[in-house]
Design goal:
Elements: E1 7-11, H1 16-27, E2 31-36, H2 40-50, E3 54-58, H3 64-81, E4 85-90, H4 110-135, E5 148-153, H5 157-160, H6 166-186, E6 191-198, H7 204-207, H8 211-218, H9 230-242, E7 249-253
Parallel strand pairs: 1-2, 1-4, 2-3, 4-5, 5-6, 6-7
Length: about 260
């Protein structure tokens, strides 16, 4: 599917992997509806920085009504620009590390678990289900009758989650598990589904890590021996959009790293 003159919804689109994805799509001639928790002033500044191909919608993906408002706002924007919806990239994510029992033998907070699952899993499903309603109505493109693509963000933690990552690994494992059944559900509508599972990438989440943790993660990379850079993620997003045979798959983007327990 061509990116040019198509509109893509990116949650978490103002920072990290989401922002890099936004920039990549706009560079390729696409339009992006950026859903993020940034305040309105920062959102307007981001729109100005990225130009007329970007539109900001303040959105907390835990709140169904926020998503509904942002998706409808995107649909209205599409009518103004004439650039049809082309896909959805739910990139909003959160991590709250915590072991099931702490050093004192106390159980971790179920509120924290609900929050991580709410953002990473429920927020992903909710944005997809509300956006897919409109994506399925787009005029099909090309000989395959493709209407769009959904690119979910899983994690290498889905496969080798570390100490204290039960909630995060559970949420990202669930995202990976959805790729195939979701692709089967949406095939009749000409919509593909792919999940990307990155390992450690330079982002706000990794910036908050201690030097010890960051080094232990970096040492797991085979080649290149470093954390990934956001443009390396967004390059893959671009390829997934443009390659119609990528469907129902989970693609690891991790420099052959396999995480240890820490």
């Amino acid at each position: 599917m061509k990116i040019q003159d198509r509109t893509f919804i990116v949650s978490g689109g103002s920072s990290g992997l989401g922002r890099s994805t936004t920039v990549e799509i706009i560079k390729a001639g696409g339009y992006v509806a950026i859903l993020d928790l940034s305040d309105e002033e920062d959102g307007r500044a981001l729109e100005k920085e990225l130009g007329p191909s970007a539109k900001f919608f303040r959105c907390n993906v835990i709140r169904t009504e926020d998503i509904a408002k942002a998706v409808q706002g995107t649909v209205d924007w599409v009518k103004e620009t004439g650039k049809p919806l082309g896909g959805v990239i739910p990139a909003a994510g959160i991590s709250l590390p915590g072991t099931i029992l702490n050093r004192h033998g106390d159980a971790f907070s179920l509120d924290d678990v609900d929050f991580v699952l709410g953002v990473n899993l429920r927020g992903t499903i909710d944005l997809i289900r509300q956006s897919a309603v409109h994506l399925a109505k787009v005029d099909p493109e090309g000989p395959d009758g493709e209407r769009g693509v959904i690119i979910m963000v899983s994690s290498s933690s889905a496969f080798d989650g570390q100490y204290g990552q039960v909630s995060y690994a559970a949420s990202k494992g669930a995202v990976a598990s959805m790729a195939l059944p979701m692709s089967r559900d949406l095939a009749r509508h000409g919509i593909r589904v792919v999940a990307i599972a990155p390992s450690v990438f330079v982002s706000g989440l990794t910036a908050a890590m201690s030097d010890k943790v960051r080094k232990s993660l970096q040492d797991t990379f085979v080649f290149p021996n470093r954390a990934g850079n956001p443009p390396e993620f967004s390059m893959l997003v671009k390829h997934v959009i443009e390659n119609p045979m990528l469907n129902g798959a989970v693609i690891r983007l991790d420099g052959a790293s396999r995480m240890g327990k820490l």
